[in-house]
Every structure is written in structure tokens, then in C-alpha cells.
Amino acid sequence: MTHAPALLVIDMQNALADLAHRAGDTIAVIAALRARARTAGVPVVTVQHHGGGLAPGTDGWRIVPELAPADGEPVIAKTSADSFLDTDLDSTLRALGTTELVVTGFATEICVDTTARQALSHRYDLVLVADGHTTSVRDATGPYAAPDASVAHHNEIFRHLDFPGRSIRVLPGAEVDFSPPGPASW
């Protein structure tokens, strides 16, 4: 099968970045990946949540300026944690010839986790960018895991997931290679 990645940027919207843990660092990692993907001719697909206080057209709904989609890049509108559910994400990726999704965005344990698992179920190989996803800022004594623990937990889970026939990798953004694999060596 041909290696054909696409970079997926999930819910990196102004209102969500305002409450995100390590927002600046995460945005910087994704921005660097986008620049490398574009240079390599790899598609960048942006997912934008609608609803739950994110009304289309509002400033909070807009993608953060550093990650704003370029003209002609696909933007997928979603209304649930699953970027595939009732959207045209799968058909868009198929039309682009995508075989592997490089997943980034917000929020680690909700939209990123759900979409990454659905990508595997839709038969895409997966790269979860270890430092390219984040969650909300919250108190470590609450019912949710502290932000750093949540990110680390999900990275570790994906390192050990097994989907037959699927490649799953967890890599820091600096190690994601968008170049096509070289010729097979004998």
C-alpha cells in the first residue's frame, strides 16, 4: 500500500485555545508540522467544531490565526467528538488518497482520542503527535487527570493499541517525517 499521509488539525479554535493547557507550545508544534506538510505536498485537513458555545462566525469559533487553513485546504465541520460522524472527513481523505492520518489538536481525551480511534476503524494508519495534542487547564485534584498526566496517558495507550493491519505510532512533532519512504533495500 502506498504511504500517503494527511495532517489532521482538530478543534484548534480561539475559544478552545483560551482554555487549553500549553496552548502556545501545542500551536507551535502543529504550525511547524503544517509548514513541513505543505512543503512536502502533504494535505492539511482542519476540523472545526460547531455547537457547544462555538457558534459559526464568532471569534471563539474561528481557528487560531497561526493555524488558519490556507485557501483550498479542506475544513470539516463537526458537531460531536468524532470527526468522522456525520461529516465528510472520510470521503475527503479518500479523495485525497490518504492512507495515514497524522493527528493533532484539542482535546486529548475527547475529540483527539475519539477521532484517532475512528481513523483506525476507518482503516487509516495513525500517527498521534505526542506533543501536538492538548487538553483543558484544570486542577489536579478534580475528577479528571491533570493535563500533563492526561496527555502522557493517552500517548502511552496509543503506543500499546493493537488494530490488526494498521500501523500506529506515537511520535513527537519533530520526528514526524512527511517524505515518502525510500526504495526498498534488499
UniProtKB/TrEMBL annotation:
Highest taxon of the lineage: Bacteria
Alphabetized UniProt keyword annotations: Hydrolase
All copies of domain Isochorismatase-like, residue ranges: 6-137
UniProt-listed Pfam families: Isochorismatase
The name this protein goes by in its record: Isochorismatase family protein
Organism: Streptomyces roseoviridis
